Amino acid sequence: GGGGPRVRIKNDDGTGVQAIAERNGRIAVGCESGVVNVYKDEKMEKSIMNLTTSISNLAFNPTGEVLAISTTRTRGGLRLYHTGSRTVFKNWPTSKTPLGYVWDVDWSSGGGAAAIATDKGTCLGYRVEYYGDI
pLDDT at position 130, please? Predict the structure, then answer.
């Protein structure tokens, strides 16, 4: 049928949408306020408020278990959200993780490692210890 949207989600944040990602029926919407809303089958699953500046990038790992959330406006502005427990990883990154300003994030094909592009022109590779194999 027609050319209308397949899914329609009302984002209640009230600020503009800056980034969006989808994997396995989950949609993450990142806003100017720093809030990321995660929806599962069009219903609100979680509102993540760990960053306070505009969301620049969202990337689910290939299995959809982890969502990388980043902002270019804050040094070290990266958080990882675990969809199974609906929690943000508390032990990484830390204030000592040398991320600088994060420009982009992508995942290895197995989902256990993340490549992080920074403002210094570097690409940092990190393994997510939660996973056995990369």
Answer: 62
